[in-house]
Amino acid sequence: MSSYDLLFEPVQIGPVTAPNRFYAVPHATGHGWNQPSGAIALRGMKAQGGWGTVAVQITEISPNTDMANHPMERIWDDSDIPRHAAQVEAIKKHDSLAAIELGHGGMRARNLTSGSPVIGPTALPVLRPEVPVQAMEMTLADIRAFRDDHRAAARRAVEAGYDIIYVYAAHDISLLSNFLSINNNQRSDRYGGSFENRVRLLREVIEDTLEVAAGERAVALRFSVAEPGKQNGLRHDGEGRDVVEALAELPDLWDVNLSGWPHDSQTARFADEGYQLPYTDFVKSLTTKPVVGVGRFTSPDMMVSLVKKGRLDLIGAARPSIADPFLPEKIRNDRIDEIRECIGCNICVSMDSYGLPLRCTQNPTISEEWRRGWHPETVPQSDVERSHLIVGAGPAGLECAVTLLKAGHRVTIAEAGEQAGGRALKESRLPGLSSWLRVRDYRLYQISQAAKAELFVSSELTLADALEFGADTITFATGAKWRDDGVGSTSALAIDTGTLPLLTPDDILNDLPELALFGSDKPASIVVYDDDHFYIASAIAERLAMNGHRVRYVTPLPTIATWTDFTLDMPRIIARLNELGVELWPNMKLTGEKIFTDQLKGDQKNLDMDTLVFVGARVPNCVDGAFSSPAEGQPGDAQIYRTGDCLVPGTIQAAVLSGHQVARDILSGRSTLRDQRRDQITFSLA
Ligand code: ADP
Ligand code: SF4
Q1: Predicted pLDDT of residue 518
Q2: Which residue from 527, 585, 569 is spatially nearest to 551, judged by alpha carbons?
Q3: What is the distance in angstroms between the CA of the first residue and the CA of the last residue of the chain?
Q4: Is the model's pLDDT at 516 over the cut of 70?
Q5: Among residues 222, 133, 109, 230, which one has the least CA distance to residue 181?
Q6: What is d(CA 400, CA 404) in angstroms, rounded to the nearest whole number?
Q7: Is 83 exposed, middle or buried, given 0-12, 13-18 or 19+ CB atoms closer than 10 A?
Q8: What's the Rg (C-alpha) of the chain?
Q9: With contact defined as beta carbons under 8 Å apart, do 405 and 447 qualify?
Q10: Which-ligand-closest: CA of 362?
């Protein structure tokens, strides 16, 4: 008897039964219809890891909802059925339920490859302000055709074997949401105007789908109950609630969340676990049907409490199931400390923006289940035990160590600092980034449980020390240093900043524990210059402003923390900096001592300041001699490798992937980079 037994109770969803309460909700994988093998293996892995229900991402029902370049799933015609049947089989093999999210993107589709006009309730520009395309107003015949397409797609989903068929009205990426919206639906017929009219199409499509499901498959409604910050958006205490009341008993399952995606997938920097509950937990009070909700849930105690308190019936997860596909199995087997908790960084989300297969900071094996045959929990066992020395216990070194240990090898890690964790440890001290520490903690726990592992802190090694140790392999994972010479993304050449006092993120991060340099007793005028464009500069600006300094955030690019657009963070970062009184200076390029050149006008401005914090490029920390040419990597007998930021500075996700990759290379004795399968697109030349 475990306190988590409640999570393993079956849940009736209409005519089907979920074996437990762990529900992997639909999310983009980047492996769309044209890379099916990766998608199938990824979802099969979640089922193997114990998710009682595994859902497939938005599946376009017809050519007039072509979402390319976002690689969604498709079920346009019968030729798509075998691919879906294979997906269902991979999920059901592990006794999980398979769900499919049928969707029509409406005014968010672009139809760039199908060439079909974008359709919506009213003739208006599409819901992507940057795209110069308009939607065509649907006639009543078009509405009938859409319902026919949805019914046909549902029939194919049944034929493919799905247990749960979704109707999708969420995230503002849905024709059904367009019809609900008073912004987008300005019709005066029976599908527009009053609430009853605007909800009509949603009701009809649920009824159509129930008819096709014929009491043998369940029908779920994915619905965003609130659209915070949107003018005339749905509110959970307004029309969002009215929709739930009006349709309460119609679907077999309510899958509820927030819209748009930046509200649904909030990062840990700005939102804690369970952040959606204040909006979504009213739903259970209005329906007897089961309810699934999300909120980056990784804590089993919280999951139990949500069920006990009647706030949710099923624990929904996208990101936690990416970071740890085996999360349910670990809870079932009372291996709570082994959960690889999502850190809420949204690197996974960024990959969807690129239209590419998922990457994850915590789980380097995601998307590689089929492509490279990687498993998130196991590594093929080696016949011969070898000993490995890893120099540096940052994300790359720790991941490399864990992977080698799993293969049965002996591993020693030497870390120069007083604690393991590298940049994850340092950056976790910045506001909102404490969850970065999970990258270290998951791996340290694994290492602490391994009999053949030793970790030495306060142990800075030279090449001679490392060679003397006598391991079979030495892997340098010694990280990188921030540059102080003006070189950054927009400047390949150094910039002469004269006598200006200049600090790098290393100076700030090393000082943070004591706050000696930057305590509020010494308010200063500080310019944080961002030529890196991810999160670090903005987090440093935030921290310095919190400490009472006058802070200006200056960047040569037109937007603030530009790359955080990919992680959906940018608007919140801007709001936070504004709240703290940080002045924002986009389009200003550092060109000399206190001199900045306006990138639009070309004129120069002198910004007076006490200190410049320069956030630009980084240089690898190479241990002297370890990689001197010409015989790179081969002094002495040990094989020498390098990984992570000391190979090439990048994100923490890239360092973890690199650490995993180098361990695979060490284990196989060759570069495994080329061991990647590709989906074969078959074609014949006419
Ligand atoms: P990555 O992201 O690639 O893992 P980090 O900078 O996070 O890189 O981690 C590198 C780690 O290596 C840091 O904790 C640093 O203290 C450690 N390190 C750097 N040089 C040495 C050295 N010569 N001996 C031992 N540890 C080192
Ligand atoms: Fe979580 Fe980051 Fe992994 Fe996404 S990339 S699942 S947010 S740890």
Answers
A1: 56
A2: 527
A3: 65
A4: no
A5: 230
A6: 6
A7: middle
A8: 27
A9: yes
A10: 2
Which ligand gives the minimal distance to the CA of 267?
Answer: 2
Chain-wide mean pLDDT for the chain? Answer: 94
Residue 509 Cβ < 6 Å to ligand 1: no
Q: Alpha helix (H) ranges present in 30-172?
A: 36-48, 81-92, 140-160
422 lines ligand 1 (CB under 6 A): yes
In the chain, the amino acid numbered 211 is E
Give 117's DSSP letter: P
Report which bound ligand comes closest to the CA of 345. 2
Percentage above 70 pLDDT, the chain:
96
Beta strands in 259-416 (DSSP E): 291-293, 314-317, 387-391, 410-414
- Domains in the chain: ranges and CATH: 9-253+282-288 (3.20.20.70), 387-479+636-678 (3.40.50.720), 502-619 (3.50.50.60)
Backbone dihedral angles phi then psi of residue 442, each to the nearest 5 degrees: -60, -45
Distance between CA 514 and CA 201 in Å, rounded?
Answer: 60
* pLDDT per residue as tens digits for the range 468-488: 999 999 999 999 999 999 999
Instruction: Give the span between the Cα atoms of 388 and 671, in whole angstroms.
Output: 17
DSSP 345-356: --HHHHHHHHT-
Query: CB–CB of 596/611 below 8 Å?
Result: no
Tell me if 433 sits within 8 A of 569, measured CB to CB: no
Residue 34 pLDDT? 85
SS3 622: coil
pLDDT in tens, 350-391: 998 888 999 999 999 999 999 999 999 999 999 999 999 999
Ligand 2 atom closest to 322 (CA): 6
Give the separation between CA 295 and CA 195, rounded to whole angstroms.
29
- Nearest ligand to the CA of 400 is 1
Ligand 2 binding pocket, CB closer than 6 Å: 319, 322-323, 342-348, 360-362
pLDDT band at 32 (very low <50, low <70, confident <90, very high): confident
Q: Which of 502, 565, 573 is nearest to 543 (CA)?
A: 573
**Ordered DSSP codes for 388-424:** EEEE--SHHHHHHHHHHHHTT-EEEEE-SSSSS-HHH
Which stretches of 286-362 are assigned E, i.e. beta strand? Answer: 291-293, 314-317
Please work out whether the CB of residue 621 comes within 6 Å of at least one atom of ligand 1. yes
Ligand 1 within 6 A of 645 CB?
Answer: yes
For residues 77 and 570, give the distance between their C-alpha atoms in angstroms, rounded to a whole number.
Answer: 39
**Residue 218 alpha carbon to ligand 2 centre in Å:** 30
In whole angstroms, what is the distance from residue 39 CA to residue 53 CA?
16
pLDDT at 680 over 80: no
Greater model confidence, 394 or 524: 394
Measure the CA–CA gap between 488 and 615, rounded to whole angstroms: 8
649 lines ligand 1 (CB under 6 A): no
Ligand 2 atom closest to Cα of 346? Answer: 7
Please tell me the distance from the alpha carbon of residue 49 to that of residue 120, in angstroms, as a whole number: 40
Lookup: tokens for 414: 């030497």
422 CA to middle of ligand 1, Å?
6
CA 415 / ligand 1 centre spacing (Å) = 7
* Cα(551)–Cα(507) distance, integer angstroms: 17
Instruction: Kindly report the pTM of this predicted structure.
Output: 0.96
Residues 544, 158: Cα–Cα separation, whole Å: 57
CA distance 667 to 672: 10
